[in-house]
UniProtKB/TrEMBL annotation:
PANTHER family assigned to the protein according to its UniProt record, in alphabetical order: BLR3518 PROTEIN
Protein name from the UniProt record: DsrE family protein
Entries under SUPFAM superfamilies matching the protein: DsrEFH-like (SSF75169)
Assigned keywords, A-Z: Signal
Chain coiled-coil ranges: none
Gene3D superfamilies found in the cross-reference section: DsrEFH-like
Phylogenetic lineage: Bacteria, Pseudomonadati, Pseudomonadota, Alphaproteobacteria, Rhodospirillales
Signal peptide range in chain numbering: 1-33
Length: 162
């Protein structure tokens, strides 16, 4: 009798193998002048102990919002996709970026496929006459974006307000 091998576990093993290969290759390369290594805190980020990071989105400026989206990608690249959970939580003017007509809607839809979570503020939608149907497909929503940040912080998430 064969036991099915979970896809998530296979992805983790492949990611670990790739990291070992890349790590060995990187160790053989000389460091760039002035470059230092970030010291990872314990517990080390891993599949069972991922870093949990909130990126706060409060701007209606597409350029600034794009920078926040790049921050999400850079965090995934640094820690590895299986070693970090990222939630972009929007409220206030930042909500303009999560609607289907946003100039960065396609980019948000793409990042959702890579496990980056987007959370919208219901209070802001109500105040501005929007509904959950106006959101980019796949974006979640809560009643109060700020309260969501507070509650996740209390559960150990780290909030970054770029």
């Amino acid at each position: 009798m064969t036991v099915p091998f979970p896809a998530r576990r296979l992805r983790r093993l492949l990611t670990l193998a790739a990291a070992l290969i890349l790590g060995a290759a990187a160790a053989a390369l000389p460091a760039r002048a002035g470059e230092t290594t970030t010291t990872l805190s314990d517990p080390q980020p891993g599949f069972d102990t991922p870093r949990q990071i909130i990126l706060q989105l409060t701007t209606a400026d597409a350029g600034e919002a794009n920078s926040i989206l790049w921050n999400a990608i850079n965090l995934q690249k640094f820690y590895g996709m299986d070693n970090v959970e990222i939630a972009v939580i929007a409220y206030g003017q930042g909500m303009d970026m999560l609607y289907r007509d946003s100039p960065i809607a396609a980019r948000i839809a793409s990042q959702l496929k890579y496990g980056i979570e987007y959370v919208a503020c219901g209070n802001t939608m109500e105040t501005t006459g929007h509904s959950p149907d106006d959101l980019v497909a796949g974006v979640d929503w809560v009643q109060a974006g700020i309260a969501e940040i507070v509650e996740r912080d209390l559960r150990g998430w780290i909030t970054v307000a770029p």
